[in-house]
Amino acid sequence: MNQLGVITRQFSCSSAVQSAIKNVTVIGGGLMGSGIAQVAAQAGQNVTLVDVNGDILAKAQKSIGNNLGRVAKKMYKDNPQEGEKFVSEAMGRIKTATDPVSGSQTADLVVEAIVENIDIKHQLFQKLDQVAPDHTIFASNTSSLSVNEIGAVVKRKDKFGGLHFFNPVPVMRLLEVVRGAETSETTYRSMMDWGKALGKTCITCKDTPGFVVNRLLVPYIAEAIRLFERGDASAKDIDIAMKLGAGYPMGPLELADYVGLDTNKFILDGWHKKYPDQQLFKPIPLLNKLVSEGKLGVKTGEGFYKYEKK
Q1: What SUPFAM superfamilies is this protein classified in (predicted)?
Q2: Which CATH class is domain 213-300?
Q3: 269-292 per-position pLDDT tens digit
Q4: N or C end of the chain: smaller count of CB under 10 Å?
């Protein structure tokens, strides 16, 4: 992947987006939320990054500053002063808040990037629906929950949709724009144009489990785990087969370790609960065993493979 090509992409906004979305509130200061805040600020938008934990906000600001510094070194390697100006201006567009309600009162767009728990998301959007301006668009960055179900608690269902970014947000070019059952054409167009203004390649998907990428990726990883569980092939050979036979940059079990086995289990469990007759979503005993043992992949040092902790 050509990171330089991604980060130096032109952030050209259409006049429609510039007039419609100028103030963006991102709720959740973790990896996804801070990444979304960064690319929005780079694109010239005013950003409010919200998290109830002040320490997480401080960490996010530091991370964004470091990331912007790396971007500036590549974009302005022959003009350090312009690089410093780029970082300063982008950071100046980001403010923080610990209260989602006050942080959303002037927003044109609110992007939620909090824990994948539908009850907590419901509580948040119910509060925001009462205080955000009537024109404000609500979007969830969920990767596995139903956009329609998340938005069921708000009155402005025509202004609700999904904006699914990929990690790391400043580098990954794809943005899945998810249309809910009642998402209006105007809202959909605004979300598409906003994503393009951030330099993303936007695709459209209906509210189907996992949207496009995870709907294909999670069952693929699950089938690879089942293949290994049955003893049909070793983990190493399964990964080599898909890298050399299908041209994939990573094998499915390597990818499972990278994503986190707990994350894979969480998504599968959620889908199985909702669609119990779908064979692809059935629980996998080996995956459950590894997670119960705390072997979650790269982040814990062991999953399907062992890793040296740095």
Answers
A1: 6-phosphogluconate dehydrogenase C-terminal domain-like (SSF48179), NAD(P)-binding Rossmann-fold domains (SSF51735)
A2: mainly alpha
A3: 999 999 999 999 999 999 999 999
A4: C
